[in-house]
Write a structure and sequence with these properties.
Layout: H1 6-10, H2 14-19, H3 24-63, E1 74-78, E2 94-103, E3 109-113
Antiparallel strand pairs: 1-2, 2-3
Length: about 120
């Protein structure tokens, strides 16, 4: 006996159809219908993913606090680069303070150092 993959039972291949004694014309028409349904399945999957992303974004945005930054405000900057530091987990996580020089569109800011 030959092995049959579980996916071949869901989407029958030509080999499975031959063993099941199904006419080739009938197999072609069934295969054509499956191919026509792929677009619908893709769209359904796309809608599902978009809905999931909206739910995740809504849950995340509940916790985000809006900050109205203005020129002249003092801020700290998070150190994100993985820098080797012998202090290990006790290394500083923030750099600064900095002064906001300019507020750009989209919430981006230009910072200047206090020593500057």
């Amino acid at each position: 006996m030959e092995t049959v993959l579980p996916i071949e039972l869901e989407v029958p291949s030509l080999r499975v159809m031959i063993e099941a004694d199904i006419e080739e014309a009938e197999w072609h028409s069934a295969r054509f219908e499956e191919l026509m349904m792929f677009d619908e399945r893709r769209l359904r999957a796309l809608y599902h993913v978009q809905g999931y992303q909206r739910r995740i974004a809504r849950a995340f945005n509940k916790k985000v606090k809006s900050r109205n930054l203005q020129e002249g405000d003092m801020v700290l900057k998070e150190i994100q680069a993985p820098v080797f530091d012998p202090r290990g987990k006790f290394r500083p996580k923030w750099a600064g303070p900095y002064i906001i020089k300019k507020v750009l569109s989209g919430g981006a800011t230009q910072l200047i150092d206090l020593d500057w």
